[in-house]
Amino acid sequence: MAHLSRDTLRETVVDCILAVAPEADVDSLPPGRPWREALEIDSFDFLNILVDLEKRLGVSVPESDYHELATLDGLIDYLERRLTA
To answer: What is the CATH number of the domain that holds 78?
Structure first.
């Protein structure tokens, strides 16, 4: 996949979150706060978001890496690393 800017990657992540949780207020999410907790994303919705990200970006996330996705920035950082690897 072609290189995506960080802003485009963030937009894609937000789109995937909103596809599963349309009521989520991603813009008011405090930096560094766990996004799943702040947006009340349960484990089923979390997996649906990851499936959508895999479809859109071609990046699968093994369960052993879930700890790296705790914050929105962490998720974006993780995807950025995987896309440039």
So the answer is: 1.10.1200.10
3-state DSSP of 3-39:
CCCHHHHHHHHHHHHHHHCCCCCHHHCCCCCEHHHHC
Q: What is the per-residue pLDDT across 38-59, written as a single tens digit (0 to 9) for each?
A: 999 999 999 999 999 999 999 9
Residue 1's pLDDT is what?
Answer: 55
Q: Structurally, how many domains does the chain consist of?
A: 1
* DSSP 3-state of 71: strand
Residue 6 CA: distances (Å) to CA of 10, 38, 44, 70, 75: 6, 22, 26, 18, 11
CA 48/CA 54 separation, integer angstroms: 10
- Whether pTM > 0.85 for this model: the answer is yes
**Domain around 34:** 6-84
The three-state secondary structure class of 2 is: coil
